[in-house]
Amino acid sequence: MNDFTLSLIFLSTPGIVTTYFLYKLTGECAKDTLTKILEIFIFSLSSYLFLFFIEGFHELEATGEFQSKLSNFFSRDDFDIPFIYIFYAVIVAFCQSYLFSFLWRKGLINRIGSLIRVTHRYNDNTLWDYLQNSQIRALETEPNNSNCKTEFINKDWFFVRDHKLNLLYHCHIRAWQVHESWTELLLENSSVYTNDTGEFLYETSIQYICRNLVDITVETPNISNDEPPLQDGEDPNQKEKP
């Protein structure tokens, strides 16, 4: 391993740090090697650019001239950057991973694209994530009627239908993890019924299930603000809408 290769590895450290923490935060990662290398390069470049502007504006305030030593280091053939700059860039990389995770979770890029009508995609993540991250939204029926009821899409209580075992879980979804073709669910305060007849079977405080994506269906029950949630032992398939 020559000095040039070693320098490239050290220079790529901020991009590697950002990619790692971004994967831990979002669960998303590039599928092919070329895209991974490109992401590391872009994230490393953004870290050094941030340091470049910080140092440049600091010098501008102190001396009246915008300048940064980073431009001198990158203009040399040996890329001999002091370790302190790489250390600062790693700190920036850690912070920007949270920033990029926020942008990804909010779907800001796609929202802007939808606003200017260049895309109809919600986001690059799955609609499953959209369902789990969505907030309770109030829907007013008959807005011109003063006696109208307000319905809530309850994100706390879910109906999880297990088509593989013919079971239905009325529960909270405490945590989830989506993989390429299967998902893991950690259910809390779960009441278990048969899916076809609605017969009550048992209750459990914590329940873990792992299924292929096609084997489960998740539903959010519509409940009015004056209606109690599903009672223990009540047939979920026979519950009428308000």
Give a topology summary:
Elements: H1 3-11, H2 13-26, H3 33-63, H4 69-74, H5 83-106, H6 108-115, H7 127-133, E1 138-140, E2 150-153, E3 158-162, E4 167-178, E5 182-194, E6 200-212, E7 216-219, E8 222-224
Antiparallel strand pairs: 1-2, 2-8, 3-4, 3-7, 4-5, 5-6
Word description of this protein:
- This protein has a five-stranded antiparallel sheet with strand order 6-5-4-3-7, with no helix packed on it. It has a three-stranded antiparallel sheet with strand order 1-2-8, with no helix packed on it.
- It folds into two domains: 3-112, no CATH class; 127-238, no CATH class.
- The protein has helices at 3-11, 13-26, 33-63, 69-74, 83-106, 108-115, 127-133, and strands at residues 138-140, 150-153, 158-162, 167-178, 182-194, 200-212, 216-219, 222-224.
- The chain is built from seven helices and eight strands.
- Helix 2 crosses helix 3.
- Strand 3 (158-162) and strand 4 form a beta hairpin.
